[in-house]
Structures
1.
Amino acid sequence: MPLFARLYNFAHWLTHDRASAEDLVQETYMKALRGFSSFQQGTNFRAWIYRILRNTFLTTQAGLKVSALVSLDSEDEKVVEPAAAETPESVLLARVEQETIQRALEELPLKFREIILLCDSEEMSYQEIADTLAVPIGTVMSRLSRARKAMRELLSVRLQGVPR
Amino acid sequence: MTCDSIRAKLDAFVDGAGSPQELADFDAHLRTCPACAADAIGRLQMKRVTRAAAARYTPSPEFRARLEKNVQPKRPPSWTFGWLPRLAVAGILLVLLALGVTLWMRHSNREEAFAELVDLHVATLASANPVDVVSTDRHTVKPWFQGKLPFTFNLPELQNSPFKLIGGRVAYFEQNPAAQLLFQIRNHDLSVFILQDRPGIFPIAMSSTARELAFNIETWTDGGLRYIIVSDVAPADIHDLGMLLKSAK
């Protein structure tokens, strides 16, 4: 089964629950097998199957709940980058532990969590992410910047009070 | 490239997105600018630790075994052809294959589509919250779909009919978003799926009725939309609801 372990990992991050992740992965493979004729040869199989998994998740009770929480921020609004000298990642990463990163990822809203996972964990190109999420590449770029900013802020908050 | 232009696209460059020329310019800038280089290294480190932290969940061997068993195509019973020369068997199979493959594929696609629709209908009825917008008022249900679907549709006035609108939800059929509306007649539920009609999306005739696993299905297209009714009620009732939907303005 192609991408089995990776799909399961992604499903677990979406559902936060082992049983739900297993159901989601099983339904994804069933749908992929049933709808394989709709897969266009020459297009990206990975983006296709991740899109099935994500669409399936969004039709579950949990998925509908989180997708109903729509941010009022504009998707294409430019993210203000920190000043060059701050190098916030370096400062944060010097003191951060893996578990802290995992907790921050869990706390991110779904649309930020999934795009960071697709980019950094699945190492998808922007085009693959755009195909998976069915959004333009410009939206991928702005959403990713926004997601990473939110991640930095969560990590900063978590590290507040920790001696430097 | 200036620091400002680098900073605006720093995430993209670190992710390897950009034209070869842009990436080469980015690389050249980093060699001369310690501040941007430090920022880029920090972001690369963040990607690396995020990747490590995200690889958190591993499927159990039991789940893998269960899934492999479930998704494996069912094997046909093994036959013994001891008394026939293998060449003759192969010839017969080829002829049968040539004759039957087209019909089988049509039948198979049709069965898969029906099975998915019946699954969606049954799963909805089995759910504790079958619909996400609960209302008998068409003027409440229809606007609820605004912004959730890339099309709109009309719902009929049901005042003088035996049908009652229960509500609606967003469903996905063959990876396409669809409105699923739940109606009721004499305590029997009917699902109406409405989605954009595209070539091959529904592998049966433009307008037809069918029976599958004791469920009746009627489908037609109108104004670029595909309508599909699924229910266990009599075909005549399904047809009546179809007529009401067709007359909706």
2.
Amino acid sequence: MPAACVARACGATISLATACLVTACGGPPAPSEAAQTVGSWGATAQFVTERWNQSAVSRKFTVVTLRRAGSELEALAKKVAQLPDTANGRATLVAGLREIRAEIAALDTAAVHDDHATAARIAPKLAIAAAQMDTLGQRLQSQQQAQSK
Amino acid sequence: MKRILEVALGLVTSIGGFLEIGSITTAAQGGAAFTFQLGWAVALGTICLALLLEMSGRLAAISKHTIVDAIRERFGFPFSLFPSVIVLVVSFLVMASELGGVALALQFVTGIGIRWWALPIAAVAWLLLWKGTFGMVEQGVSLLGLVTLVFLVGAIKLHPDWGAVAHGLVPTMPSHEPAHYWFIAVSILGASITPYLFIFYSSGAIEDKWDSSYLPINRITAGVGTLFGGALSLMVLVVAGSVLVPRGIQVDSVEQVALLLTHVLGRWGFILVVASLAIGPFGAVAEIALASAYIAAEELGWNWSEDVAPRDAARFSMFYTVLVFLSVLPIALGLDPLKLTMISMVLTAASLPVSVVPFLLLMNDERYVKEHKNGWIGNTAVALIVLMSCVLAVVSIPLQFMGG
Amino acid sequence: MSERLHLIHDVLDKMVLGRDKHRLGRVDNLVLEIRPDEPPRVVYMEMSGAALLNRLGRIGRATAQWIASRGRDTPRLPFRVAWDLVREIEPASVVVDVDSASSRTMAWERWLATHVVSKLGG
């Protein structure tokens, strides 16, 4: 019966979809993807700090966002550590990740203590580090695409 | 005069009630990852939803049946049980993600973690349903949801390349990360075409005692109102593309969405976006709980109405009560609201044929809609979009998670 | 010529309304009597979870039997409305000469209303 076939097909689709989503990777991400994610969180931390210094967002929100960035990068660092030593760009990625995590931790402390001056000093360095990670990610992605062709 | 007011209210409700956590975050993700290239997914999802809403209103007005009622009657219990259960399960996940969205907005303002907010939000939503009427649930929160017009204001002030925005309304192949592109396209479609919306709409038409004289109002509310609401969703994508792409920021959390309008609108940009993240999803929590109770009651033949006292529809009222408080669990147990949102949107897209195909058959059955059957354009458009959503969901999910 | 009634299309799964036009439930099953030397005739409409489960195949029937026999020597019968209590078959519903307020099919509704909903201020 067509209706039963549609129902069974959809049931299979949904089961497959759920299985894939539930088992969604515990494994390490590709270095290009990881670099862009690190750059993204670094840029987010810089953006929220810049907005906080201009009184566009509250200190509470700034702390929430910086802590979120910190915890996401901590989780990412564990996955990046699983990358093989010979992975393209690994060393630069690990160094950049360490630097950005340190800057975000310092920003978090500054935000907690309402220290705008320290935050204003750290934010530009973070912007540069984040941009470098983003560039690394795009370069690695281009290399990956060129290799796959 | 009364009808003009009804049209106006219906339009306002469609616009103010359109954006919720799914449509906001998926559009923002699309904009941040691919600038304006995924505008077509927003447009396609909106058009499909407008068609489905108009059909559900027409079915209710002419046949005096809701969608679930008509599916049970026309196809029998063993068949109708399947789409009802699927829609209930998927809607529950969506409701939990909406609750998470409200909790996040409150966390942004107070600093208090989302796990602490889950239960109070559920309690307030329950109180609205317990003590309120259908009109209050549908229109009250939607009127507050007009705050989401801030995305339109922000988009205009950002002076994007409107030519590129228009170009994005035409489907194109992605320039990079194809698996991610199609995954976000699917989630945008799933966020737009959520079954609870047209089930809620048809039940609401019965609550409001629509007849054939309401068909023009239905066309305007469902058609024009939804298109305006979809335009707001497009503005979220435009804003994200304009603000986040130059900064190299992806949307991996709702915090990044809250920053979208802080540069161009300052403090008010933050306040109004956070308000949007709270009000829209809150309305969705109440609507989904009510829609789920409608599904159960109509499927099983219980008394149902949001316009009577809870004791006069006891099983119906207890169903949404239990559901609202159960939806606290995923957030209270620490599931990430954004990840939950993405999962529920993609599962929605994958499950669309189950709810839409029987509905389309009803819309072509003269015994229900008499001379107001679907035209071939409506049938073809809905069938193609739904089929495409399902196929994309099946293909893109494995690609996304297996690094394709 | 008498009007024809299509049991599956016109009756099964339809909403049932009591004499006060309040919802009683749905026609979850139809029971026909097989008589020797006479055509079968409809005797009851069943309205209950057990009747629904019986339509879901082997597992549904087994579940219905298990629920019906829990704590009883003889299994509890599903709620039935005699066919001769049917007053009207409308396009969207079947109206029966039953008082919905006291009907057994509304037992859970009444219990919830009295013991739970009222206590929550509903």
3.
Amino acid sequence: MALAMLVIAGACKKKSETAANLNAANKVAVRRVNLYYETAQMLLAPEPRNVALPESAAAAIPVVLRELVKGPAAPTSLRLFPADTVVRGAYLLPEGTVVVDLGGKTLTDGWGTGSHQELMAVYSVVQSVTANFPDAKRVRFVVNGTPAETLAGHVSLSKSLGPLSYLVDPRAR
Amino acid sequence: MKRLLSLGALALLTLASIVLAQTSGQATLRTPTGSFPFTYTEQSGQLYVSAGDVVSGLGGTIAPDANGFKVTIGNATAAFGPDSRYGVVREDLIEMPVPPIAIEGKPFVPWQFFQGFLSKAASQDVIWDAATRTLTVRAATRDAVGVTVSLANVQGISKIVLTLSAPAEYGIVKEPQAYVVRFRTPVRAPFGEQVYEDPHVARITFAGSDLRIHLTAPEVAGDAYQLENPPRIVLDFRKGAAAAPGTLQPTPVQKPQELPGIRTIVIDPGHGGREVGAVGPGGLMEKDLTLTIARKLANALASKLGTRVILTREDDSVVSLDQRTALANQYKADLFLSVHLNAAVVKDAKGSETYFLSLEASDELARKAAENENAASGHQSSDLDLILWDLAQQSYLGESSRFAQAIQEELNSATAVANRGVKQAPFKVLVGATMPAALVEVGFISNPEEEAKLQTDEFQSLMVEAISRAVQRYKTDYETRIGIIQPAPPAATATAPPAATGTAPAAPAKPNPPAPGTPQTRTER
């Protein structure tokens, strides 16, 4: 029994060391990022959050976006995407375009919401990406790996989108 | 640092390349200027080509970038990155079946990267022949005419518009429960079969040079006519005595005499069918209320202004966003208004707001248009067409802004709802409208108080009257500026109207006339 415990403890220690080594190799470190959510003023405002991120922007962007769709921590901010939304991937391409691949049942089946919420959701992604990663200039959305017309019938996703400043709280611009 | 990042990109590509089943070898790149060898590898049935070899054969360059690789061929630049099956060329995506990989430090891309890149940027076809191991790059086939198909049900008529990339020879044959458009010019079919939820059209199929429109019932009758600039075949279907089987002669449409001023208005009830839009806490669906308001607005405008008013949908049917503006263009509408109800996660959100289209990077578009015009030899590329289309739309933005402003001001004064102002956004339903266009969000269906108010006849009437006044006001203002209506002489005792007191010269009446060859000519305005 004691031997078994020792073996398990040894295995755990080894696994922990391996994970630490991988983090070091990938230069994963905790960074403070700003995630943009809607506030009661109906504008996007940043919520600072500490997230363990790889050093390279290309690898860090999907991690940040997965944090974003989890929703805000502050009770004064509001979740914009449907709760079942998933970030399938995000790819930073040369010249600064980030392709963001979204999925989830609601976005797949058809999201019924108004233009305001759709605008805020789309631009919460654009703002969270471009504000945290200087190399990222614009966002092109795809849904389930396929180019999509809109998320909910309003905002055109046929071209890449840059930040839209009037949607952002002036104090955060 | 940049070199380190590039090495990192290569490392990621290398990681992605660990696939067991693979064959490699040399293949031939055949281009208009000659044949060149290139290295390929085939993994799990996917052909990857050495990006460097193929780019070199095409006379281009490839260079590592912080996030991947940048490829330049002629005047066009594209890019791809590790771990992503999307590349970019200008504003467009290049979709690949799988991400690129690296072999011995060199990038290999799915051959479809070059297919997407060269078709979008250089109007070239790229074809892989597995039997001869040849990748052929050639000018896109000019003799095959592209066909796009749209269907909309307008005022009880199912209207199919076949838009052709070039004029084509064809005939139309009536079958017992179908019409066949038989092309005598080779065409590129956009699909094999498309099924529709339409009262008259069940599905459309392409087989060889035949486009077959399958009808829902034998008694559905069709008419056909053709339009120019761009070439279009339009087929209208309605219930009635069906024509006997045989041939149907499409008639060229005489262009109606174009009268200046606001003569035709298209009202677009947002959403419809399975696309319900926003749903209020009490269960009110946006698609139902937009249709109610749009119908009332259409009646009010037709009776008060005497204008022709067309709804993009008259029942609970699905109409695609592209079809809505395509209809407005087809009817040569002078105004387009999309009616919507808003929703927000902020529970007490309230008020109305009016949008017109935002087009980003106009300077960049103009620059690219100029570059392409210089590069174009003999024909305009599809990219150039798209850019010019964008530029044409921009010329309407000033008028769209005035129209949106009028709507918002009248809504504010009449209904006392919160004023959320006039805004710009890249809304899909406004893209492609070749006339002043706006989208009004009359209230927040997500707010229980506004949801209840929006359902009352009294409030709906107030809104309809306000929007009607706004259209009347814009019409009068516009027609005064183009000289159809003489401005009323200032009364000696009257206060000068605020809009007329400025010293600035009148704005151009209609958006500036298009330069020869711009897409505005396609809409026959």
4.
Amino acid sequence: MTEFIIRRSIQALFVLLVMTVLVFFGVNVIGNPVYIFASSECDQACLARIIADLGLDKPVWQQYLIFMGNLFQGELGNSFTHGIPALELIFQRLPATLELAFSALVIALVVGVPLGMRAGLKPEAFSSRMIMGFSMLSFSVPVFWIGLIMIVVFSVQLGWMPAIGRGDTVPFLGTDVSFFTLDGLHHLAMPAFTLSLIMMAMVIRLTRAGMREVLYADYIKFARANGIRERRILSLHVMKNILIPIVTVLGMEFGGVIAFAVVVESIFSWPGVGKMLIDAIAVLDRPLIVAYLIFVVIMFVALNLFVDILYSLLDPRVRLGGAAA
Amino acid sequence: MKHWITGLVTGAVLAATPVLAEEVLTFGVRSEASSLDPHWTQLSADLQVQEHIFEHLVDLDSASQPSPGLAVSWEAIDETTWEFRLREGVIWHDGEPFTAEDVVFSFDRLRGGISGAPASPAFTLEKGGKTWEIVDDLTVRIYTDGPYPTVAEDLAMVPIVAQHAAEGVTASVDFNSGQAAIGTGPFMLEEFVPGSRVSVVRNPNWWGGDVHWDRVVFRPVGEDAARLAALLNGDVDMIDYPPTIDLPQLQEDPDFTVSTIPSDRLIYIMPSYRHVEEFIRDNDGNVMVPNPMRDWRVRRAMSLAINREAIRDRIMGGASLPTRNIVPPGFFGYVEELEADPYDPEAAAALLAEAGYEDGFQITLHGPNDRYINDARILEAVAQMWSRVGITTEVDAMPRNVFFSRLIRGDELTMPGFDVPEFSVSMTGWGTVAGEATYTVSGTLETYNAATGGGNGNFGRYSNPAIDARSVLAKQTIDNDERLEILQEAIRIGMEDYAYIPLHFQVNQWAMISSLEHSPRTNERMLAIEVSPAE
């Protein structure tokens, strides 16, 4: 187990290294942020001074070495735009995104698993067809459109829901969360539901497929023959087995949801990291972009690890630490 | 028993507090403020929030003309000395008195730029080689290298911060936290929650008189449709940049009003004058020598081929002001008789034939697609109009983060040493921030000169000695009438030569609930003191 974790961490370091090279040089190819910020009256001398001040006048490789040097001292640099350490900005915004992503995950599971089980148990029933149709729609209709339609219907027409932003927050475990206040939940509902749709569709499909497979497995027949109640069969024996693919896929998906919740965050003006990333790219705020992507890589690696461990707990046949096949 | 006491106490407190409804104004803004340090950037979104908190020696009125701010008056004592009399009895938000020390501190803070700041207004202080000196508590003198007329306009760009609050603090960070964000303006910073809101509360001691709003909240809503939805369902009271496509419905809806004013931002097309242009080719795809843009008739033809009214009506939702001027009406330097070119494709085709291009040629028109209002659609329209008269035009629209680097310096990375403007024909914008045309003439019409800073926005490298002479003279002419005449001459020469092709001034628009009244300003800022309950 320990060996496994160490090996994973070394892999992660390599990924990080490659990523910083790509992003650093990539952002540089796009352009120079000073030209975006500068007032039209800022003349050549003025531009040159700002470029030198930000260190952008040096060759890219030199800038990269300076950046790596600082990185080893745990210093990711200040955002050009905000003048605030990039990491601080990320951690300022992260709670909002995590909250949104977790809520979406919970909605996806709570709604998705029962619907998927129903569709798997009685695949020919009308309700099951409806469920599968719904999951198909959730997959294929763009999130952007769904979000806007929800705003138009529930905020503008019916006036039930706020269209933008995050609600009141309360301190919780050293951070601010909004799901303990009524106003917070009110604001959270639409964006979280919108964000959950694709995950939900996936959960429904995976659960259904799992049900179809597991229900005909010998051990289920055996359990039935033993006279175990149907309820117990479904909630224990079936559930345990269909959860494995769901955990795997959702684990991966969840990283993506956190890292790139940007569409939903933009539509609902949710103050999360995704929106911050897009703003940073628009003005080529390189320290912020690089810091954010480093964070994302670390998060993906950690999630991968977490999923693998959870996997081994759910399925004892999986052994961590064995030779990579 | 305990509950009973609590109830009694609460009741007593409630009874003692007069019930006053708090007057709150909530803005939905397209872009969030990136910092509350007023010396950090000069982005409109930042200035808009900061101007509620901080003030300048010189204010800009709604037509961007200088008016008294923290200075009540100013005059040129001699050609190189300006004296500013400060307003008496102004106090900072924390109760400290405002003095000349604060002014000089603010200027000194900016000297040499703020380290790490991507666009501090330091350069406005450097223009004309300004130095400064305290005469007494309420008098400051500014000295310039030589005769320099636009000291007041420049100082309208320099926010004054409090020495006792901002000395030795970390730029940006300590302003965002509120520690250093002590101003003299009509509102005091309450809270800045990045991504969510900035809220300011009324400054009861403001020198400018009563402020109606108890609290003003700025909420960033970047998505156009969401910003409109937030207005429609009452989450916010007023928004900037309402989507042009929805304007007709908004204007018809009795629950909402739209306020409108031409802005200082000129949208124009800039041809490049180099002898060989990569993006201008004949119909067989060969680079053309000489570059047809160097022919006055070609540039005129390109201007006549553009239907500015159609762009206004069909793309801008009526919100643009077609023009041939470089500063908007009401600004110092506006030339009354320069009228927008009429749409005349026949004349355009004839001019092209006369110049020897009856078969036309091909160009690529470059421009941004996320910087100006409807920029990508304007590019497409212009391309079609030009193609109709024989100039086959291909559009290359790109995000502003790519566009401006290539516009200004070309592609430095992939072509080392290649640091000249890249585009042959491009669309861009120019904002005349200080309501005065001197730097618009110098920046866009004067010959490019890295040493003097002339022509710093002249990426087409237009060069005309008749304009250069006037532009340099205008920068040294203190007498307003004389300077106005020189500037207008320079503009007339440049526009009659089609140095570049003006399309229109953008029109600023704001949408609000109909119980509000707004007196808009040219410079794109939405200020709470200019919003009041409708009669």
